[in-house]
Amino acid sequence: MAGPGVPEVLDLAGIFVFAVSGGLAAVRQRLDVVGMVVLAEITALGGGILRDLLIGAVPPAAFTSLGYVLVPLAASALVFFWHPQVTRLLPAVLLFDAAGLGLFCATGTLKALEHGLSPLHSVLLGVVTAVGGGVLRDMLGGQIPSVLYDRQLYALPAMLGAAVMAVAYTADLHGGAVTAGAAVLATGLRLLAIRYGWRTPRPRGVPD
Amino acid sequence: MAGPGVPEVLDLAGIFVFAVSGGLAAVRQRLDVVGMVVLAEITALGGGILRDLLIGAVPPAAFTSLGYVLVPLAASALVFFWHPQVTRLLPAVLLFDAAGLGLFCATGTLKALEHGLSPLHSVLLGVVTAVGGGVLRDMLGGQIPSVLYDRQLYALPAMLGAAVMAVAYTADLHGGAVTAGAAVLATGLRLLAIRYGWRTPRPRGVPD
Amino acid sequence: MAGPGVPEVLDLAGIFVFAVSGGLAAVRQRLDVVGMVVLAEITALGGGILRDLLIGAVPPAAFTSLGYVLVPLAASALVFFWHPQVTRLLPAVLLFDAAGLGLFCATGTLKALEHGLSPLHSVLLGVVTAVGGGVLRDMLGGQIPSVLYDRQLYALPAMLGAAVMAVAYTADLHGGAVTAGAAVLATGLRLLAIRYGWRTPRPRGVPD
């Protein structure tokens, strides 16, 4: 799902971390090996697949690259055998997840812009790229998607990164540095929100 | 998602009412502001997006029009701040929801017919347009889609409107009056069903 | 969804059995007639629709053939009126379901290969064709998809049949006999797994 200027290794690193989060969700819900592989693949690739279906880029990138399928498989194997150790590394996983979130919102927005969508719709699709895999992971696991209720700043940093990307693109600023900048902003806001416990509001009058 | 002859303001009114129903579902499930916006957008746009993906009209209309994205955002803001007042207006919301149901089944069927699908498949896609957003709203909210079990006449009026639309189109009757007629029939049946408490049957021998 | 060389009657028989399984799920969950028809159609057609969306074959085959829509409707009528009798035939249903699984993984893989996807991605899409309908059925019914946790050999036989199909195709072996062979292998493994109670593993250290 890499946009131009994004080193492929970075893109695959993002895929890997999202896949680990899918695999750990499978452990928590006591799924079997099939469930683990499905959740790892869907968490890592689902957002990009949704975006590609919506902009008409079919087959989606996940179905034309071997790496996109094999990396989540490797992540599944890791979690299958060593999930207690991986769980202990969760703070690091959260850090990498924030990096994946930033990267995917920036590259997802860029791909939509390059397919001719408006800046507003491209921002939407950037957010879909970043959070869509996690939404599908939660739905498959029988849970309300955490992004809808957990009040963490997760979708909002993705929206910030996507908006910066769209504004820069509209101002004719292109290249890897722009993409990296948007990604870093989103990742940074996500990490600050974790650090300081920032929350999104509930509708007026709805108690905690 | 308007077909020819449907005033755009009517189309956006339907979008608005469906978005309000999504926003109210978010309040009931105590989602945060992100969950509310997502449910409002998906409830309003999900049926049309599914239809457009299935007939190959990509990007879907929701990703080429600003109004389709901004109107649910406005509905979210309304529900976020004034949901107790909106809830008190629920009978009116049900009325408008019936109008949206009628409008969307008619225009959804027409769009499928114009893309060359058979009358039977166009009826199917008209129903998908009308009820798809509500199905996605319920699935995202962790609930069985109400249209599958609540025994209200909701999908059946949509099917009636879609069938009338398809028959008229096959008989070379076109134009805004035909679309309006099909929409009014579906809306009327839905309102009669609410008024008289008509129910759909359960499989033989399944108790209440 | 039939590939070349697959008699259409066999294809429709697979659709019918999958639809019966969807209808029976609707009875268990006490859905109404709308829910039953939706679950029957989705279980029978959902896997093929997902595959066709992902390879860009739109409208999906289910939206260009009358039989694909009418057969699940007939299955719904059968289950609606005679579900106690159908439930008693469940061992036979399981047998036919295994046949449908084998047929769909083979023809699904073939269709993806013919659309130019790589063998690995075609195997993935063959498995999606075979199990996708059941996954959507479970999600609509508010349950975690059984294929993710029930430890039965269901996805793995589909993967075996899909892999055999892809290897044969890559080795320039074509025709109905090859498709039939792959289907029979998958069906056979599924039946052996039922007969001998073979199970898929859970992640290391996760208790039963």
Walk me through the topology.
Three copies of one chain form a homotrimer.
Chain A: H1 8-28, H2 33-55, H3 66-88, H4 90-114, H5 119-140, H6 155-170, H7 176-196
Helix pairs in contact in A: 1-2, 1-3, 1-4, 2-3, 2-5, 4-5, 4-6, 4-7, 5-6, 6-7
Protein described:
Three copies of one chain form a homotrimer. By secondary structure, the first copy, chain A, is mainly α. Chain A has one domain. In chain A, 73% of the residues lie in helices and 0% in strands. Chain A is built from seven helices and no strands. The first copy, chain A, has helices at residues 8-28, 33-55, 66-88, 90-114, 119-140, 155-170, 176-196. In chain A, helix 1 crosses helix 2, helix 4 runs antiparallel to helix 7 (176-196) and helix 6 (155-170) runs antiparallel to helix 7. The first copy, chain A, is globular. Chain A starts with 7 loop residues before the first helix and ends in a 12-residue tail after the last helix. The A-B interface holds A 53-56, 115, 117-118, 120-121, 124-125, 135, 139, 142-145, 147-151, 154-156, 199-206 and B 26-27, 29-36, 38-39, 49, 53, 58-60, 63-64, 66, 69, 79-84, 139-142.
The structure class of chain A reads mainly alpha
Rg on CA atoms of chain A, Å: 16 Å
- Tell me the span between the first and last alpha carbons of chain A: 38 Å
Helix fraction of chain A? over 70%
Number of self-contained structural domains of chain A: 1
What do the pLDDT scores of chain A average to?
Answer: 92
Task: Work out the helix count of chain A.
Answer: 7
Largest interface pair? A-B, 33 and 31 residues
Question: How many strand elements of chain A?
Answer: 0
Largest beta-sheet details of chain A:
none
* Overall outline of chain A: globular
Low-pLDDT windows of residues of chain A: none
The percent range for strand residues of chain A is under 5%
Oligomeric state as shown: homotrimer
Helix-strand pattern of chain A: HHHHHHH
